[in-house]
Amino acid sequence: MQDVSKQYGKDAQSVVALDRVSMGIAQGTFTAVMGPSGSGKSTFLHCAAGLDRPSSGAVYLGATNLAELKEARLTKLRRSRMGFVFQSFNLLPSLTVEQNITLPLRLDGKPANQGWLEHVVGQVGIADKLGQFPTQLSGGQQQRVAIARALITRPEVIFADEPTGALDPETARDVLGLLRQAVTDMHQTVVMVTHDPIAAAHTDRAIFLVGGRLTANLDAPDATQVSDVMAQLRRAA
Ligand code: ADP
To answer: Residues lining ligand 1, CB < 6 A?
Structure first.
């Protein structure tokens, strides 16, 4: 992201949700995006993922400048070169687990590589659930399906928005372990919005937003360090 700003609304009612954010995310790393409520985390994720367009500045995925793409190309790019994991899983209830996982490929008219599908579902631990429907699964299992769906296209980056927000602590730890494994073992790149210091402790780097500005970052963060920085930022705010 180069000098990315995002302003909502105009004039007196306008809100600067992102304020000249410049940063790079290296391939094969796990990054936590943190900050108090209203600090711009969602806006950061939406701009980085091309779900929203910055008011100014540029966002690159590799050599592709997202700002130069029309909506249809951007949609295709998101489907083929990015993966998404959401707090609420966002699986389609009328599709089986296997159909949910392979949906991004089918929307692009590509066949699923059976070997890769088996590898991915084996990695996330849902190989025995492929014929089931999402409503037959627990929250943790549904999030595993969502992670498999994110991995199936071998994307350049996976964006995760509070992926453990709807899960109990033990299931959350398993899901974070899977995201960690996707980075360490499958050479994926994961960018995760979270407010949870324990979740951030699974990452390689935590970045902190306050009032839409990047204000701090921690490499190889542990939960105590993250909590301390959050407390400092709250006091300063
Ligand atoms: P966070 O995810 O850290 O809670 P957001 O990115 O959602 O923060 O919001 C950052 C700021 O931008 C907040 O002040 C929020 O009220 C404002 N904002 C976010 N989305 C919109 C929108 N669609 N219209 C107007 N203001 C918005």
So the answer is: 8-9, 15, 17, 35, 37-43
Looking up residue 111, the CATH number of its domain turns out to be: 3.40.50.300
In this predicted structure, the answer to whether residue 13 has a pLDDT above a threshold of 90 is no
Whether 141 is in a domain gets the answer yes
Ligand 1: centre distance to CA 125 (Å): 36
Within-domain flag for 84: yes
Q: Is residue 3 domain-resident?
A: no
Q: Give the chain's domain count.
A: 1
Say if pTM beats, i.e. exceeds, 0.85. Answer: yes
Angle 166-169-175 (CA atoms, 0-180°, nearest 5)? 70
Selection from 59, 100, 98, 56 nearest residue 81 by Cα: 59
**pLDDT tens-place string over residues 28-53:** 999 999 999 999 999 999 999 999 99
Q: For residue 95, give the DSSP letter.
A: S
